[in-house]
Input
Amino acid sequence: EVQLVESGGGLIQPGGSLRLSCTASEFIVSSNYMSWVRQAPGKGLEWVSVLYSNGNTYYADSVKGRFTISRDNSKNTVYLQMSSLRVEDTAVYYCARLYTNMWPYNWFDPWGQGTLVTVSS
Amino acid sequence: DIQMTQSPSSLSASVGDRVTITCRASQSISNYLNWYQQKPGKAPKLLIYASSSLQSGVPSRFSGSGSGTDFTLTISSLQPEDFATYYCQQGYSSQSLTFGQGTKVEIK
Output
């Protein structure tokens, strides 16, 4: 079954750093487009970052310069390194594959179960 | 960035009702528009991609339409399991993939 499993969330103080991991099953991360989407408590979905198979990366303005998306091909895992964390970064972070069968058509599928990041003193 | 605006933000409906949710883009996005369903405590689930293509396994009571800036998600006969929050998302801008703010469908 094609699936994604996130880990690494937790409680962190403002200004701190945290790394989230997302491990894929039944597909190769390096051959696909991978993304992070977050959802603050009681709020809607916010796209955070995308990593294309050619290595290009893009970020939402709200996290640019503070978050970094990367991958480890040997572990079939995507990461989100988060630094200079703010209270407003508190959210459930979802990993998702940005799937395409005919570019530029693309959509998020599948999604991981999410991992909660709480930024608080 | 392309802004996505959904309406309404919430609605109350009864089982069997026909429900329509609208999504408007701040600029033309052709038909690069997707719809997701999210239930409380769960990850979003893809319903519709490329404006009108039904994802495998999704009931046929769900349908999507639109092109350019205006899009619609329709549930032809609302079922108890359809009470959830629905999001549109544009895939036109590959460097910034934005979502609408969501529409919560509640039981009347």
In short: The two ends of chain A are 39 Å apart (CA to CA). The mean pLDDT of chain A is 97. The CA atoms of residues 42 and 91 of chain A lie 9 Å apart. The first strand of chain A starts at residue 3 and ends at 7.
